[in-house]
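REQUEST ID: PR-0412
SUBMITTED BY: lab tech R.K.
PRIORITY: routine
TASK: structure prediction, single protein chain
INPUT:
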Amino acid sequence: MIRGTRQRQAILDVVHHSADPLTPQEICTLAKATLPRIGIATVYRFLRSMLEEGKLVVVEIPGEAPRYELAEKDHHHHFFCKKCGRVFDVPGCLSEVNRLAPKNFRVDSHEITLFGYCESCLQDK
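STATUS: complete
OUTPUT:
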């Protein structure tokens, strides 16, 4: 558990104000804006604690560092930019995802990640 409430609050603020999932390093960098001496080990302790409490979820992108976002978000998917490496939330879901499963199978959950180039990276081409 994180001892310092200022550290915990700085990390919470970063996670709550982010529209998209963040890596531990991104969280640490953003938290340093309000608490310059915060370290990556503190961020990892916080993330572990929040995962155990069910307040955060891990966003896995193959070949990339795990990212974290609030568990309270509505079901959604993600877009990974192959140039800048950022991950963006994609709101909503395919309404017919169950039809993608083989006949007589039941889908309990799913994750969909789109891969391509974000608007900023497309303008840089």
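NOTES: The beta strands are 56-59, 67-70, 76-81, 87-91, 113-116.
REVIEWED BY: pending
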